[in-house]
């Protein structure tokens, strides 16, 4: 696992962080991001007074331990490297702060396969949304500081937007975890409980096409309903928009009562059909998830 990662080098570099004064130096340097998001340098004297260390030798020693990997300096100025900046982001996100609050309670959403109100739990940085009858419907890892000033419905909305961003990234062959490339896409078909709601469309909704991808670099696998990818495509965004649905606010894992869809594997891709009221959109994605074609029709023939 981990490909070409050298654990010795990583451990050595991380060891340079294991000191509270060094963390204070990183946080002081991060202050230079406040006026604007540029990476300005900070003068040595300003940095030293910001962390308030009397002993110059001690300060220099700790600053030196951070140099190259987390901090760079030239002409009497110091700034965070990308690694230093990433560490500060995670410090602010309380990733390394130990105990974290857990919250749970009902959300506004209801199970699509019943009337049950859904429950959400945010624990150990993971938001989980579940149905009392059908178990977990959605989960997503968020920042530990995510619940600050946000309720569970807001967290769920954000988690869904993040899931859409994941889909966009995966569609561009960029692993959202490590930026690696993916192995070849595979389509499989999953059986579902038949959905009587769509009987009038004479669609086969007893199965759902799943798109599977695995990152070559970190090995993370995604197995996602293929229609999710179609949701982020321009023809679908426009189709939903024409029916007053903002695709960014979609709840992904359990469909929506306002639209229906079916999916079918082709020799070299997948076809997804969406229906809202009497309008239909048929969209074909090729085996690399690019939009090959789309067609809109109206059952009433007015469009
Ligand atoms: Zn349910
Ligand atoms: Zn990856």
Automatic annotation (TrEMBL):
Residue span, DUF7347 domain: 11-91
DUF7351 domain span: 109-289
InterPro entries from the UniProt entry: DUF7347, DUF7351, WH-like_DNA-bd_sf
Protein name: ArsR family transcriptional regulator
Organism: Natrinema altunense (strain JCM 12890 / CGMCC 1.3731 / AJ2)
């Amino acid at each position: 696992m981990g490909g070409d990662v050298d654990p010795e080098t990583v451990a050595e570099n991380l060891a340079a962080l294991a000191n509270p004064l060094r963390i204070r130096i990183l946080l002081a340097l991060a202050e230079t991001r406040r006026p604007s998001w540029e990476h300005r340098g900070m003068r040595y004297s300003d940095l030293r007074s910001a962390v308030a260390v009397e002993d110059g030798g001690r300060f220099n020693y700790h600053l030196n331990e951070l140099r190259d990997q987390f901090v760079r300096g030239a002409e009497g100025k110091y700034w965070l490297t990308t690694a230093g900046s990433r560490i500060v982001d995670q410090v602010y996100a309380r990733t390394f702060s130990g105990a974290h609050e857990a919250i749970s309670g009902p959300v506004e959403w209801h199970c699509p396969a019943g009337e049950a109100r859904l429950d959400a739990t945010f624990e150990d940085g993971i938001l989980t949304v579940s149905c009392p009858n059908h178990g977990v419907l959605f989960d997503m890892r968020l920042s530990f500081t995510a619940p600050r000033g946000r309720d569970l419905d807001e967290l769920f909305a954000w988690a869904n937007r993040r899931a859409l961003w994941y889909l966009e990234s995966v569609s561009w062959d960029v692993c959202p975890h490590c930026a690696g490339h993916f192995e070849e896409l595979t389509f499989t078909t999953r059986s579902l409980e038949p959905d009587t709601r769509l009987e009038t469309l004479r669609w086969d909704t007893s199965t759902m096409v799943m798109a599977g991808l695995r990152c070559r670099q970190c090995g993370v696998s995604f197995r996602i309903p293929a229609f999710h990818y179609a949701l982020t495509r321009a023809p679908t965004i426009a189709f939903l928009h024409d029916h007053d649905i903002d695709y960014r606010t979609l709840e992904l894992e359990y469909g929506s009562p306002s639209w229906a869809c079916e999916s079918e594997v082709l020799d070299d891709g997948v076809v997804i059909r969406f229906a809202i009221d009497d309008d239909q959109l048929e969209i074909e994605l090729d085996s690399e998830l690019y939009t090959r074609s789309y067609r809109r029709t109206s059952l009433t023939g007015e469009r």
